[in-house]
Amino acid sequence: MSLIMKAKAALDLGAVNLWRVFTYRLGIKLGINPVKRLTAIIGDDDFFIPIAASARKLLPANDSWNSQHCFFGWYIKQAEDTPNWQQNCFTGKTITADQPWWHIPDFAADIGDIKTVWEASRFDWVICFMQQACAGDTAALEKCNKWLRDWINSNPAYLGPNWKCGQEASIRVMHLALAALLLQQQKLTTTALQQLIAAHLARIAPTIRYAIGQDNNHGTSEAAALFIGGSWLALYNHPDADRWQKLGRNWLENRAKCLIEHDGSFSQYSATYHRVMLDTYALAEVWRRSLSLPVFSTKLQTRLAAATLWLYNMPGVAFGDVANLGANDGARLIPLAGSDYRDCRPSVQLASALFLNKQAFAGDGIWNAPLKWLRLPSPVAGLGAPDSQQFDNGGYAVLRHNNAEALLRYPRFCFRPGQADALHLDFWLAGVNVLRDGGSYSYNSTPEMVSYFSGTASHNTAQFDNRDQMPKLSRFLFGEWLKTNYLQPLRISDSSVSFAAGYTDYKGASHKREVMLADNLLTVNDELAGFKLNAVIRWRLLPGDWVLEGNSVTNGQISLNITSESEFTLRLCEGQESRYYLQSTPLPVLELHTTEPGIFTTELFF
């Protein structure tokens, strides 16, 4: 890879962020970062205390950890006992917790994806058990205290994999705070729980600048944990509480200003990571209100309102799903509803009530679970049905017509792109995802799987000369970030809605895509030029029985027909999609192959 290409990527990432990461790594290596000198004492008494009998049995609850272990929102193991906290939940391989966390490599080959170890230590189960306790189940509270004691005994402070990541520590803090909110024990916190929170904040604070340097939800998560945990411990006069609380508040304000665009787009270009960010700020706001702390700035609230509307407008959300856009690590920060992992409605409803003072979804559905559990009133006014929208800061166009939705992704990269998905097109019909994105599967799988899911081949777009749209410089970094050089803004009429965008890549290949959505018809015109050998356009289809005949493919209800004056061939093959982290399932893919530039028209009839 050329030095010029790496230098350009470094400039794109920003000198300040590079300096933050460099000084963090140097401080760890030289032993001058104070995180390497930490010690902590955590008692093994009860962390949560019994509560009076409650009438909250009828509230919808998350039962995913009842008599079982649930990982990444889908992978179930039947078990009653505590998890093995150092075990890969899929393979059973373990990693010891007998060395300082900074000695553990980021991608240890012997354990596989370290997220399979971290998953149980995100404390989702704490929320499930506390919901049962609120419904009058005293055994669930005892079980939660037992598991927490086991976790502490198995994970000595600052030793082992579960202390390695500041964001993982932050998720634990936020889930413990959420549990305290459910029990209304913010001001009745046991000494052991205070010690546990303090040990985590002491781990997070010295390394937060590394998290900030990532320009993603690591920074928002760690800021929220410091703000919530610091203000919590301030109630008990902890000597570092005010400093932690102030540090967290300042970075929450900064990250909202820097990472959330005016149109609500977030730096990670991902639907599920957008939800993580939104839930993080929602929890910080609920916590702030519970302690009557000073309000956040108007700018923060404005950006969060826009971010709420962004997720509300994504295809599939109103039906309990969401476009499989961008990376996804299985995180769900506020797991209060018993809904599917991919259902964003509870998060959108909560954020809408907090930051817009409006209902996103009417009626008494599962989407109201967070409001009910957190004792928040439901606003009277509603947002109204989502319409066609262009989010130009982030590079998204959402087209809606009758019961059909289309999402076109175009390059507006102010932050590092996580996937080579320029001009990807998602299509939804009455809540069914007909043309589908690939997801991310895993951050530490085989090189082939990592390359496939982050690369161009797992998206509904054009691929030139058997390469990705951008060169991969490292596991999480592409070079030569694409820029939109052709744009026709959203045009809406009574009979149709249309949008067009295009780019030219670093080797001179160009792609212009025009999308029009009308009655029972989606039309896509792809203009391809500048490639040397060949080009492929892929349409990743809803799983089912599709038949290819001539230039058309159909499943009996939906058909795609492709025409062009240029020569091309079609083939129907098998691809993969990952709707949940570390889950991969097959789906049919229609591939158009050509060696000639030209305009290729796809018509989808429904």
From TrEMBL:
Its main location: periplasm. Residues 386-544 form the Heparinase II/III-like C-terminal domain. GO terms for cellular component: periplasmic space. It is found in: Periplasm. It holds the Pfam family Hepar_II_III_N. SUPFAM superfamilies: Chondroitin AC/alginate lyase (SSF48230). GO terms for molecular function: lyase activity. Residues 147-282 form the Heparin-sulfate lyase N-terminal domain. InterPro entries: Chondroitin_lyas (IPR008929), Hepar_II_III_C (IPR012480), Hepar_II_III_N (IPR031680). Keywords: Lyase, Periplasm, Signal. This is Heparinase II/III N-terminus. It comes from Rheinheimera pacifica.
